[in-house]
Amino acid sequence: MRTAAFSLLLLAVAHTAPGAAPTTPAAPDAPKDGPVPTKDAAAKMTVPPGFKVTLFAGEPDIVQPIAFTFDDRGRMWVVECLSYPKWSKDGKGSDRVVILEDTDGNGTFDKKTVFMADGVNLSGIELGFGGAWLCSSPNLLFVPILADDKPGKPEVVLDGWNMTDTKHNIFNSLGWGPDGWLYGCNGIQAKAWVGRPGTPKEKRPYMDCGVWRYHPTRKVFEPVAHGTTNPFGLDWDEHGEMFITNCVIDHLFHVVPGGHYQRMYGQDANPHAYGLMKSCVDYKHWAGGDWTSSRTTGTGGKPEHSDAGGGHAHSGCAIYLGDNFPAEYRNTLFTANIHGNRLNNDGLERTPSGMKGVRRKDFLFANDSWFRGICVKCGPDGALYVSDWCDTGECHNYDKADTSNGRIYRVSYGDPKQWKGDVSKLSDAELVANQRSANEWLVRKSRRVLKERAAVGKLEKDTVESLKTTLSSKKEIPWRLRALWSLEAINALDRPTLEPLFEDADPTIRGWAYRLAVETEERRKELLIPLAGSLGKEKDLFALTCAASAAQRVEPVWRSAITTRLMFKEETAKDPYLEMMVWYAVQPRFALHPSDAARVLHQITSPVMRRNAVRFIMEQPAEAQTKLIGDLLERVKDSKKPEFQLEVLRGIREGLTGKKQTPAVPPQWAETFSQVRGTTDPNLRREVYGVALLLGDAEAQQVLSKTVSDPAEPASDRISAIELLLTRKRPEFAKTLRTLLDDPAVRTAAIRGLAAFADAETPAAIIRAYSKFTPEEKLDAVQTLAARKEWAAALLDAVEKKDVPRADIPVTTARQIHALNDKALSTRLETVWGKIGVASKERAALTKKWKELLTEDTLAKANASNGRALFAKHCGACHKMFGEGQAVGPELTGSQRTSLDYVLENVLDPSAVVPREFQMVNFATADDRVISGIVLRETKDAVTVRTTNDTVVLPAADIAARKQTNVSIMPDGLLDQMKPDEVRDLIAFLRSKEQVPLPK
Question: What is the pLDDT of residues 398-413, one digit of tens each?
Answer without folding.
Answer: 556 778 899 999 999 9
